[in-house]
Amino acid sequence: MHEALLSAQQGWGEYAGTYRTNLVWVGTDGYSPRGAAHVGPQPELIAGAMADLLEFIERDDLPVVAQCAIAHAQFETIHPFADGNGRCGRALVHAILRNKGLSRNTAPPVSAGLLRDTEDYFAALTLFREGDASPIVRRFAEACRFAATSGRKLIDDLCEQLDEARADLYGVRSDAAVWRVLPNLIAQPIINTRYLQKTLGLSKPQAERAIKTLTERGVVVARTGKQRNVVYEHRGILDVLDEYAAGLRRG
Asked: Could you tell me what percentage of the chain is helix, strand and coil, using 3-state DSSP and rounding each to the nearest 5?
């Protein structure tokens, strides 16, 4: 996971997926751990600590949200890598949720819920390191509730956009290529003929006809003024996604 996240980061390729070999600390300058909020374990202890963490993650006798919270907090406490621990720790949460069956088709924005109040989040991590896991478990429960609520609204809003587009396309032949393009706009609301050919396997004439229909019916609009390689967008879907992202930031 860490290798996948950092392998393309400039200057970090050789460290991706490799445990750190130096001491790390959080909450002070980079010169000394004096006064740090947390000092990670010595490098020689990392492998054993991670093995213990993985054994904990594999347990199936715990409430999954609580298990996620404790696993995440312990990972951040071990701080096993020289960089990318935050990203990897958040990705770990989604991997556990997927592995335990709580999420199947998408990654709910649990991390965004966690970071709505960073001060409270870091305070909960500190209390965990002092032996009290309750605050971080509560933060995760709240984050999961936020993720479920905001995710459900996103799905409803996107479905509404598709329903409106279907209404706009009323009367178009049922075997027209445009119907294959329409649901794909959720994942890719910005398209061109080349994209439709490559992704959906449409011929160039099919892709051109589909975009022509979508444009004439007002489902998509041209994003560029170029005569060639014109890019088209579904403004409604983009607005929904922008509002969703803004809501995550606002909390």
From this structure: 60, 5, 35
